[in-house]
């Protein structure tokens, strides 16, 4: 009996390592999004500002565009928020928001307070569209070209450096 | 040339660690005295090598050697020199060098400051630490080498240090944390070596205890500084976010607290030997796990390091090797030396047992909450959830209450069994009277009651009174009292102050979003907030919008400045909050957006007692530091 108790910590720890390991290898595949170079998925989800208005892929009309996944519970999103505001001011590119598993009121408050960089935000409460997109977490940003094809994806905060390295090249093409 | 010297020094460090890590083991296995060596010399040599390597990196930053990729990514010509210095540990690669440096410093301290008559025991302890340092050097050289060059054409200017790191608090925060994390290496190495030699619990606990205390001290300061930084730099006035990386530091902190308490019992009574071994292992394991979670990018958080799954795999490998190894030894060892010491439910031993159980369960619950989203995602095929503040607060609250109640009278418990409980009455009477006064004070200041805060406020008074009562035992001999109990008084009263700060700030804070035109005022409670002027300012590497605000009440007026900076190399904006603080409250204002000409939005907050949180933390750090130093002197 005592021997079993002595081995228990080891077994628990090995199990933990295995879980982390599977996750790590899964994440490697996941980050190579299968969606790159495929068209943006179809959806039909309510708008954040107007719950009665149903948005679909057709509403993302001005291309090329950025789709930015955000939420009020996501601290990193607040860090990138000012950059998106700048982008809206200084670039022709339109930004569409995907409000991810969030509370509507909190989200609207935040946009009112800190400014709204988005043409509109899709209110993806249960994360359905996010699953279709293979979203890994907020914040995350997708670039869609003029044909509605996803060309680039960035997981994490987007700032000037990321912008120039990953996204700006598509605008010059 | 200089970066290559640093690179070579690191390689030499790696090689030396490798041999120092295995030769003693052969020596002891074959009982060959010829293979024993002097730990003192080797540890000094290792320390010199890693210092050289570190200094070379610092030098490359100071002279703007942008041919070094790491410097080019994290520095800039316009960066002030002190931030160039701090940029050395501003990102993943350099922080690893600092980490290895910290491990070496601890090991050097351990070898030079502890007197040991058992040569083979300290030799094996030393070699285990060297093995860990070998793994870290290998990791650095293979996946995250800061000395890599961009040749033949180096960039003319660097990309700049992450603007939010360009701040005094944030340059000190990482080193403190790394020292805290890496200090846990020493108790770990001692515990493993103690298992190998089947050391007496009392003996090994005595040599591990100071290092657990010192690590805890550094962790406390590091975490508190991080929290303070987030408070004034991120611009929304929070001081703790339950961010995965914060949790990754909080869990080792909890375990280090549990560990040094458990080691007290192990040292004085020879009890909890196995438990202390496990805690030493897991405290170190969680500090490695924290590194893994941050550097592998499997959790997103404000602490964005460059994400690289390969690095994650490597750290997981290090973690697995050392922890599975040590737990393997643990499971094979025969600990069946039952102690004859008996203790009752009313004893100090039992108090420590409760303290440990509560801290460990709390640590496990927080760790679980932190990695649960990963597990959930793995078993539900990619569905995601986020575990946020409500979970952690719900978990923390009951445990904090139980720990606080225990802490209030724990100092009076006696070894074996406690005969009389009259002290409870005394503490209770004092606590109730002070509590009443405090509540009246709070009512006068905030003109409101918040009943949910009463439990926590009472708890803090209870802890403080319970701790201060101990002074009575020393009659009026304060010098004697200070000499003997200063550490515990500092740490426990610090905890009471921290709890009070948390209780008040989370229940009596006020927050408003306001819009002001230049020259306008807004009345918040009894304070008049006036927007005086708006200026443009040019810093060394940023441009900034700078608003001057006056807070005015009956007795005084203060001008504060809140800024929005845009750092030009990266284009990244930061907010600098304007804070006017005194002992009972902070007035906190952060600049929002420009709505029209001269019309800006602001976020104003009154944060009562918030300074107490950090003041309490500093006292805890000081208390554990004094205790650690005292323990070193004693051994």
Distance between the termini of chain B: 44 Å
Sequence of secondary-structure elements of chain B? HHHHHHHHHHHHHHHHHEEEEEEEEEH
Across the major sheet of chain B, the strand order is: 2-3-4-5-6
Largest interface: A-B, 49 and 53 residues
Helical content class of chain A:
40-55%
How many distinct beta strands of chain B?
9
User: What structural category do the secondary elements of chain B indicate?
Assistant: alpha+beta
Q: What is the tally of helical segments of chain B?
A: 18
Largest sheet data of chain B = 5 strands, antiparallel
Instruction: Write down how many β-strands of chain A occur, each being a DSSP E stretch of 2 or more residues.
Output: 7
State the low-pLDDT regions of chain A, or none: 28-32
What do you see in this structure?
The complex is a heterodimer of chains A (173) and B (635). By secondary structure, chain A is an alpha/beta fold. Chain A is built from five helices and seven strands. The longest helix of chain A is centred in the N-terminal third of the chain and has 30 residues, at 2-31. Chain A is elongated, with a radius of gyration of 19 Å. The radius of gyration of chain B is 26 Å and the shape is globular. In chain B, helix 15 packs across helix 16 (452-468). Chain B has a five-stranded antiparallel sheet, with no helix packed on it. Chain B has a four-stranded antiparallel sheet with strand order 1-9-8-7. Chain B has three domains: 2-327 and 346-395 and 619-634, no CATH class; 404-508, no CATH class; 510-611, no CATH class.
């Amino acid at each position: 009996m005592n021997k079993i108790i002595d081995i228990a910590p080891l077994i628990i720890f090995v199990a933990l390592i295995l879980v982390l390991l599977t996750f790590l290898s899964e994440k490697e595949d996941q980050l190579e999004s299968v969606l790159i170079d495929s068209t943006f998925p179809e959806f039909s989800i309510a708008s954040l500002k107007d719950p009665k208005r149903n948005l679909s892929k057709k509403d993302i009309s001005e291309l090329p565009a950025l789709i930015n996944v955000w939420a009020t519970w996501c601290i990193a999103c607040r860090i990138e928020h000012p950059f998106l505001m700048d982008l809206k001011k200084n670039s022709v590119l339109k930004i569409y928001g995907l409000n991810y598993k969030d509370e509507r009121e909190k989200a609207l408050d935040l946009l009112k307070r800190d400014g709204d960089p988005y043409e509109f935000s899709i209110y993806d409460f249960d994360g359905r569209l996010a699953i279709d997109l293979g979203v890994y977490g907020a914040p995350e940003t997708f670039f869609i070209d003029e044909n509605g094809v996803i060309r680039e994806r960035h997981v994490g905060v987007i700032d000037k450096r990321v912008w120039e390295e990953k996204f700006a090249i598509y605008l010059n093409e | 040339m200089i970066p290559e010297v640093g690179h070579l020094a690191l390689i030499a460090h790696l090689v030396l660690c490798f041999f120092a890590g295995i030769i003693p083991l052969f020596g002891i296995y074959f009982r060959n005295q010829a293979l024993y060596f002097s730990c003192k010399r080797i540890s000094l040599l290792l320390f010199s090598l890693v210092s050289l390597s570190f200094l070379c990196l610092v030098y490359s930053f100071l002279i703007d050697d942008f041919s070094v990729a790491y410097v080019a990514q994290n520095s800039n010509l316009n960066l002030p020199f002190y931030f160039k210095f701090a940029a050395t540990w501003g990102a993943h690669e350099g922080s690893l060098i600092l980490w290895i440096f910290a491990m070496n410093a601890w090991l050097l301290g351990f070898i030079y400051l502890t007197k040991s008559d058992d040569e083979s025991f300290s030799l094996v302890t030393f070699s285990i630490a060297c093995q860990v340092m070998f793994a870290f050097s290998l990791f650095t050289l293979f996946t995250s080498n800061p000395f890599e060059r961009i040749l033949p054409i180096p960039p003319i200017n660097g990309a700049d240090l992450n603007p939010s790191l360009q701040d005094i608090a944030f340059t000190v925060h990482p080193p403190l944390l790394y020292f805290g994390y890496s200090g846990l290496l020493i108790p770990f190495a001692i515990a493993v070596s103690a298992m190998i030699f089947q050391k007496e619990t009392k003996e090994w606990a005595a040599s591990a205890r100071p290092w657990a205390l010192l690590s805890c001290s550094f962790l406390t300061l590091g975490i508190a500084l991080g929290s303070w930084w987030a408070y004034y730099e991120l611009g929304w006035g929070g001081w703790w976010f339950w961010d995965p990386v914060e949790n990754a530091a909080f869990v080792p902190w909890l375990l280090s607290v549990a560990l040094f308490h458990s080691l007290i019992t192990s040292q004085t009574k020879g009890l909890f030997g196995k438990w202390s071994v496990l805690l030493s292992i897991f405290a170190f394991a969680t500090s490695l796990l924290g590194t893994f979670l941050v550097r592998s990018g499997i959790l997103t958080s404000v602490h964005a390091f460059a994400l690289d799954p390969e690095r994650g795999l490597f750290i997981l490998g290090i973690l697995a090797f050392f922890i599975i190894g040590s737990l393997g030894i643990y499971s094979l060892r025969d600990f069946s030396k039952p102690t004859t010491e008996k203790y009752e439910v009313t004893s100090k031993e039992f108090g420590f047992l409760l303290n440990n159980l509560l801290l460990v369960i709390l640590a496990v619950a927080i760790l679980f909450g932190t990695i649960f989203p990963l597990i959930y995602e793995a078993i539900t095929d990619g569905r995601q959830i986020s575990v946020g503040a409500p979970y952690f607060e719900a978990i923390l609250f009951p445990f904090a209450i139980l720990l606080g109640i225990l802490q209030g009278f724990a100092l009076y418990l006696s070894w074996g069994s406690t005969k009389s409980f009259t002290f409870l009455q005394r503490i209770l009477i004092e606590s109730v009277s002070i509590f009443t006064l405090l509540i009246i004070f709070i009512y006068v200041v905030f003109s409101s009651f918040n009943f949910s805060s009463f439990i926590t406020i009472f708890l803090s008074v209870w802890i403080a009174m319970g701790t201060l009562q101990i002074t009575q035992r020393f009659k009026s001999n304060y010098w004697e009292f200070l000499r003997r109990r200063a550490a515990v008084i500092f740490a426990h009263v610090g905890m009471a102050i921290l709890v009070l700060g948390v209780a008040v700030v989370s229940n009596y804070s006020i927050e408003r979003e306001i819009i002001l035109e230049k020259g306008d005022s807004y009345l918040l409670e009894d304070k008049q907030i006036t927007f005086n002027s708006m200026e443009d300012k040019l810093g060394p590497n940023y441009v900034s919008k700078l608003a001057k605000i006056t807070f005015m009440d009956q007795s005084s007026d203060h001008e504060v400045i809140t800024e929005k900076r845009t750092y030009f190399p990266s284009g990244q904006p930061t907010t600098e909050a304007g804070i006017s603080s005194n002992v009972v409250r902070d007035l906190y204002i952060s600049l929002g957006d420009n709505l029209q000409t001269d019309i800006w939005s602001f976020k104003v907050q009154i944060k009562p007692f918030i300074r107490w949180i950090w003041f309490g933390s500093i006292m805890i750090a000081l208390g554990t530091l004094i205790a650690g130093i005292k323990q070193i002197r004693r051994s």
